[in-house]
Amino acid sequence: MLVRPPRRNDSDKPRGAAFGTAAKPWANKPPRRSGTGPKTTANPHPAHATASDGKGEPQRIAKLLARAGIASRREVERMIEEGRVTLDGATVETPATLLASLAGVAVDGVAVAAPAPTRLFLFHKPSGCLTAERDPVGRPTIYDRLPADLPRVIPIGRLDMNTEGLLLLTTDGGFKRQMELPSTGVPRTYRARAFGEISQAQLEDLFDGLEVDGVRYGPIEANLERRTGRNQWIEMTLTEGKNREVRRVLEHLGLQVNRLIRTSYGPFVLADLPIGMVAEVSEQDLAIFRKTLKDAK
Predict the structure, then answer these.
(1) CA 20 to 30 Å from 127, out of 138, 169, 202, 246?
(2) CA-CA-CA-CA torsion for 187, 188, 189, 191, nearest 10 degrees?
(3) What is the pTM of this model?
(4) What is the pLDDT of residues 26-52, one digit of tens each?
(5) CA dihedral 282, 284, 286, 290 (to 10 degrees)
(6) Residues with a known catalytic role
(7) Strand 256-265, strand 164-170: pairing
(8) Distances from the Cα of 234 to the Cαs of 7, 189, 197, 247, in angstroms?
């Protein structure tokens, strides 16, 4: 259920609501870093693996490694094809190999570590870089901007190349999946600067949801913050996070988005985190938040 966000004072700075009732100190602190890992993995940030679900049920090795945060499932399948994944010293031949756990599995000759606590980082993504591990045509990605000594992390959701603001990064593939599911209902808040004319009454209609080019979008809480000439600053909160949702909805209303900033994801806020910087959420805050998440199948 969406809760109407408070109205903001005029500012072009990214903003968002605080975790709980007061801003947490990690929102503005320099990042806490961990040691570097092997440089031979596809992603430059090596991971600690987590067990599947702790139930011991056999699952495809590609799924286990992806959920453990080693890489995306497609990337894991490519690594297996290249012979980079082994089980008890023998090369894994197929991503369909069924395992109850990752015991004995190694990637690039490095044994998958014992389960480690989930870690969550805030990253102020700059405009002009992709939320991807690599780009076929060589465009910059978020991994070109992340500190080299950060643990191997995977993004929760995506931001378009030209969208800036808060991107959550985690070491836990299962947590990533839970956060991304629409059924979990985690709200995301954006501030959009758009050219054109719009009224608050038109924005209020978005709370009923709408359909654009055959795609149905759920309720969106939208507030017109201020006008500067024919540019409007609009704050929007949604829970589905479909591909290019904010841009497509505003374009459907006749606006041209020329800047888009994500200011919060759940209780985690961008606040004054500098562009390109990373800050870690404390274990306590993360544990409190995870208790509030809906169970998602």
Answers:
(1) 202
(2) -160
(3) 0.68
(4) 343 333 433 333 333 334 443 333 333
(5) 180
(6) 160
(7) parallel
(8) 11, 10, 12, 12
